[in-house]
Known about the structure:
Layout: H1 3-34, H2 46-55, H3 60-74, H4 76-82, H5 88-98, H6 105-109, H7 117-132, E1 137-138, E2 144-151, E3 154-161, E4 168-177, E5 180-186, H8 188-191, E6 198-199, H9 207-228, E7 244-253, E8 258-263, H10 266-271, E9 277-281, E10 295-300, H11 302-307, H12 311-314
Antiparallel strand pairs: 1-2, 2-3, 3-4, 4-5, 4-6, 7-8, 7-10, 8-9
Amino acid sequence: xxxxxxxQKLQPIRDQFLVRFYKWAKExxxxxxxxxxxxxxxxxxxxxxxxxxxxxxLQKQERTALSSGLLKRSHQRAIELxxxxxxxxxxxxxxxxxxxxxxxxxELGSQSHRTKKAKFRKMLSGKVAPIxxxxxxxxxxxxxxxxxxxxxxxxxxxxxxxxxxxLVSYSHSxxxxxxxxxxxxxxxxxxLGIAQTEWTYVQESExxxxxxCLVELCAHFVRAVPKLLDGLSxxxxxxxxxxxxxxxxxxxxxxxxxxxxxxDTPKLRMAxxxxxxxxxxxxxxxxxxxxxxSHFTIVQDPSFSRESADPLALSPT
Length: 317
């Protein structure tokens, strides 16, 4: 079954999930607003600082309207199914929020600090492991890690990204199978209707607090998912993995434990003008083939991947 057909078949279940998720997000928004924004305060970026400045200027009734209006803006499919459309009061406070000007924006921009990301990544991976396990994928530069948590026939994928000018961002998706999702781009600021979740204004002394907050947020959602999925199931088969093989040549090695190889398949070399390279874990290359200039063939064998007890075969990087 191809991806469009699988998505169409899954739509009734997706709708049930999205309504449940919207109702759960309502309760979570009430918690965050009533407790003085405990999570939002720890996620320091221009959007959250601007949000807090605006929200704290409102009366209680206006805050309630802001909370529900933001939710309805970010859970549009659920409000269509529930016929729970924004009220005039909610629309009015959302318009005021959209026009809000933060006088400290320039000053806040100057508060950004460069941090030692290698140290931060090591700290984060150790702390998140009890919640998410080990990554199923790591980018060669270690900037992005992907985790998978299996819940019956569903998988929660978590992306943690430490690249770019920000210190870190994260998001989840709930998947039926590869490329077939119930929902994606899930994080606390997205389900509250504020923004995507990232930390921008962080001093080196605050890195530990960011790690603790991120770990707590991942645990917060992962704990909620079983109830959100209760009674929902699917019978979608995983797509068949195509067997392939590519001839490569070793070009060099990186300090992060990866080996650089060029792909020697004539058509690919022609398409890339001889510049097609690939980083693979040095650990999977036999020692006798690690020298620069060595040639070997990389093989993707689906049956071996499913049946082997070798961790590298079961969870290839």
